[in-house]
Design a protein that fits this description.
CATH architecture of the largest domain: 3-Layer(aba) Sandwich
CATH superfamily of the largest domain: P-loop containing nucleotide triphosphate hydrolases
Number of domains: 2
Helix content: 25-40%
Number of strands: 10
Number of helices: 9
Largest sheet: 6 strands, mixed
Strand order of the largest sheet: 6-7-8-3-9-10
Structural class: alpha/beta
Shape: globular
CATH topology of the largest domain: Rossmann fold
Radius of gyration: 19 Å
Distance between the termini: 36 Å
Order of helices and strands: EEEHEEHEHHHEHEHEEHH
Bound molecules: adenosine-5'-diphosphate
Length: 254
Amino acid sequence: MPIIEVENFAKKYPLPDNKNETFFAVNGVSLHIDKGEIFGILGPNGAGKTTTLEMLEGLVDIDGGHATIDGIDVQSHPFKVKGIIGVQLQANEYFDNLSLVELLTLFGALYSREIDPENLLGKVNLLDKAKAKPANLSGGQKQRFSIACALVNDPKVLFLDEPTTGLDPQAKRNLWDLVTELNNTGMTIVLTTHNMEEAESLCHRIAIMDHGKIVAEGTPQQLILQHAPEPPEAPLHGNLEDVFLALTGHALRD
Ligand code: ADP
């Protein structure tokens, strides 16, 4: 049963070289995402992935079409929607002088919720960093902390915008495990990624966007059979990433 329904989404922005003219950054996107799915949105830079998510999240105005999350119209009830979604943006800024526990308590208060910060940090494997400041976290730890922040309101749907960009292989796999664990609790997860391996191994279904439109949609298996039916010869061995992990994985800091 769909928890997210998007019909004909459209968003116009000024052309970069002529501000008097506009172009469609998102142009007629429709999506039906089932409860409990991990749904991936793929596409080259500028395809309209982030803008599509931002419209769903109530962060930018919708120029055309409409959408509901769990039956709530995102345009007419943006605050109600914000109460049931968690959002991890591509980049985050925090108050420098607050610790992870203090920041989570603060974010909880913004939702008028009393939260258990240690429990949230445990979920993202950062309990030992409870008193640390975000500036002192590694890239992978920062990403996991931003997911903890997105979980303060116990969301039904979690949006992750390129959650593993820039992470080393070990940190990336830790984050995949976290996404799978959250999904196993019944949470619907919508993510954008440039990483094909990530999309193939994590996502139940994928939409591929280009020039503001969805150009293909299906399970990874369906998309491969439909668009790349001739598989390359099976490799005899693992890939270089496996070598990297085998040699350094346990010692890597994430
Ligand atoms: P993606 O996430 O697929 O990389 P985006 O949704 O970020 O793509 O961007 C889609 C297009 O919209 C790009 O051409 C981008 O430059 C443009 N765009 C995004 N946000 C804005 C904005 N606030 N103002 C003007 N143009 C924007």
